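Second opinion, please. Please look over this fold, written as tokens:

===
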Amino acid sequence: MLEFAFEHRLDGFHLAPALTVDRAVTALYGPSGSGKTLTLLCLVGLLRPERGWIRLNGRTLFDAAAGIHVPPHQRRVGLVFQEYALFPHLTVAANLAYGLRGTPRAEVQGRVEAMLRLLRLEGFGRRYPGALSGGQRQRVALGRGLILQPELLLLDEPFSALDQMERERLRAEVVDLLHGFGGKTVLVTHNLQEAYLMAHQIAVIAGGRILQAASRDEVLQCPRNRRVAEHVGVANIIRGVVAASGSSPTVVEMHGARLSVTDPLPAPGTPVEVCIRSEDVRLVWPDRLGERANVLGGLITSEVQRRADYLVRVRPEGPAGDLGPIEVQCSAHLHSMMKLHPGKAVWIALPPEKLHVLEPIGEDR
């Protein structure tokens, strides 16, 4: 288990509040400049925080108050850099063996051969990095981190230098490799899809601050507040006032629309924000309106076709129009069946169990 809470000043103030990494893979997700890479450098020991502590499997790697700072080579922490950081003048085998200096030669040879097999790079040991593809170089970089048998593996944007097709293929290969890794992995990424596909836990970071850390489904479906919701791509954030609470379901009054929610609500009259992901909004056939809760009628204002689906924006009619456009994700098949197009009148439903009540930003600790 990895636990840390530290502060470090570099080009501004960066803070990582206490975070526990107890899942096999945790994604540190956030925009560029949010403090993701800085956090990794502190964990591996290349940067020394000003205050705080870092503990790994019961060992204290850093404690500012106690004056403890374990050097990088003694931490059993592997780091795979964004740009691979392979030595161009060394062969693949020599790159893999670089961190094993001081290990008996026979053991080094055995571990290198085993790693080449694991990476599916048998026969590439005598090649140099310049003769490899981007995906092969990335696998060598990953192998160099794994060959040290670390307790913690840190991956810094490991696929950012690859094209889309190679990224998707290599991502699947890395997931397979990590299944056999007994330690914990922290993946730094600004790609939400990558975080969701690879990690069991997602920690959202912005401005050097951990905004929320939870299971990947909880972060996506139940973001803590508006800032997290915006970072994880929730398009529909609606403001309203609590009309009734303490009952089931509770009710929010939103610009003339009364929406039932299943989340707990504060006292009536309290301003609140609720959110719902576009894939959770339902298009409703006119003959099934009575089967749905929170049904709104409106007009399609725009649509965007993607690979296998559409993003459709619907503006509710009447007073509920002040809610603003509601984004709906629907399959290409449903889009064709309902003959959807801009200007068409449709009915949408916002399922109460999918409406999530956000904490006020002021409560972000």
